[in-house]
Design brief:
18 helices; globular; Cyclin A, domain 1
């Protein structure tokens, strides 16, 4: 009797690669890339300056609302995991989705089509040919709500809208750059695939990369992160990840950058910003303020982690690290209500505490406590993360009403399909 055909990438036995050879190759690759690193950073900085994601334009969508984004994200994250695609592919996918939604009107019934087509485009851009999902698989994943020709037409429309320009710095590229810059004492190079080995020179990089990647994926769920540069979000996630793992490398490096900035002479306002470390758009006082705002947004986002993201990173041990961090700082995270204002001056000490900084705001980290801190009472006019969502919109984890059109194979949990629903 013939077995039913299984969709997805072909099964593959993991190849046991000698650790010594991997270390030698990593060191050799690092020396080869080091020669071109300034040119690579300059190219990424030029692309980041031309980024065309405007969340204010997405706000003008007549049908798409921000509360629908987590449902699409959960579906795409599990679809991405079931095909075992590169981490870079997921970030490239939503970079394409955001850029497209900022330029074109997307109807609710086509939102899933846009997301799956963007994943298809990103997979062809980043992954091996054998792992790219086929049109038939994409159609089945959507329970045949869209035929194969619709994916092809949507691909043409997305690429023509973006003028065939897919080369934008993603969170994964900036993540790798920030890990290389902030983790100075670690040997080897960051891992594109997170390995679970706890021995060897790359274990520190792997742990920091895994936690940083979790925070970067968490930032995809919220609108406010789109208002900041990609390199700033990735660098902040890296510093917070080091703080979670109690590794002082990133915080000490950031303190040296701030101290060096204070000693520098004011630069010409008309000159273009230079790449400084992991910051592609330069490093100045405005960058420091943005880092603190992003830190507070991350602290707020950690209070609402979706089940899909928790399941994905639980096996890697990342979720336990995050939970320990939340427990250690529960008194501070509870003060971040739905109407907190990241720009409030009274929140500066809280942000520096999360980042692990010691002397930037004046008091030492050990002396920073809730009793010594200014009461955090955000103004009533501050905007919450999802303030644009109507009061009748369903919350983050509540399934919407309507007929389902998301297909759920064995790799995708039924709960995700029930959450990702078609809103007529």
């Amino acid at each position: 009797m013939n077995e039913p055909r299984r969709y997805g990438p072909p099964p593959r036995q993991p190849r046991q690669y000698p650790v010594v050879l991997e270390l030698l190759e990593a060191r050799a690759n690092k020396k080869l890339v080091e020669e071109y690193k300034p040119d690579i950073c300059d190219a990424l900085a030029h692309l980041e300056a031309s980024s065309d994601i405007n969340p204010a334009m997405i706000d003008l969508q007549p049908e798409i609302q921000w509360f629908m984004r987590p449902f699409l994200l959960d579906f795409i994250v599990e679809l991405h995991a079931s095909f075992k695609l590169q981490p870079q592919t997921l970030f490239r996918c939503f970079n394409v989705v955001d850029r497209y939604c900022a330029k074109r009107i997307v109807f609710k019934r086509h939102y899933q089509l846009v997301g799956c087509t963007a994943l298809w485009i990103a997979a062809k851009y980043e992954d091996k040919k054998s792992r790219v999902p086929t049109l038939k698989e994409l159609s089945i994943m959507c329970r045949n709500a869209y035929d194969e020709e619709m994916f092809v037409q949507m691909e043409r429309h997305i690429l023509s809208t973006l003028e065939w320009a897919l080369g934008r710095p993603t969170l994964e590229e900036c993540l790798q750059l920030s890990v290389q810059y902030f983790i100075e004492d670690a040997e080897g190079t960051p891992q594109r695939y997170t390995r679970q080995n706890s021995d060897g020179p790359n274990s520190l990089n792997s742990a920091v990369t895994a936690v940083t990647r979790f925070l970067c994926e968490l930032s995809l769920y919220h609108r406010d992160f789109l208002e900041f540069q990609t390199s700033q979000v990735a660098a902040t996630a890296n510093v917070i990840a080091c703080s979670m793992l109690q590794i002082p490398n990133a915080a000490r490096q950031l303190e040296r950058m701030i101290a060096s900035l204070r000693r520098q002479q004011p630069s010409n306002e008309n000159s273009s910003p230079e790449v400084v470390g992991a910051f592609l758009s330069g490093f100045d006082n405005g960058t420091i303020d943005n880092l603190r705002k992003i830190t507070l947004l991350f602290a707020y986002a950690l209070k609402n982690i979706t089940d899909v993201l928790s399941t994905k990173y639980k096996a890697l041990g990342v979720l336990q690290v995050v939970q320990n961090f939340i427990i250690r700082n529960s008194a501070l995270t509870e003060t971040l209500g739905d109407d907190f204002n990241p720009s409030d001056a009274s929140m500066t000490a809280v942000a520096d505490y999360f980042l692990g900084l010691t002397y930037v705001t004046g008091p030492k980290r050990n002396s920073l406590s809730i009793d010594n801190m200014t009461p955090i009472t955000p103004p009533s006019t501050s905007r919450s993360i999802f303030s644009e969502v109507p009061s009748s919109s369903p919350p983050l984890h509540t399934p919407g009403s309507g007929q389902l059109y998301a297909y759920t194979p064995k790799q995708i949990s039924p709960q995700i399909a029930s959450n990702f629903a078609y809103y007529p």
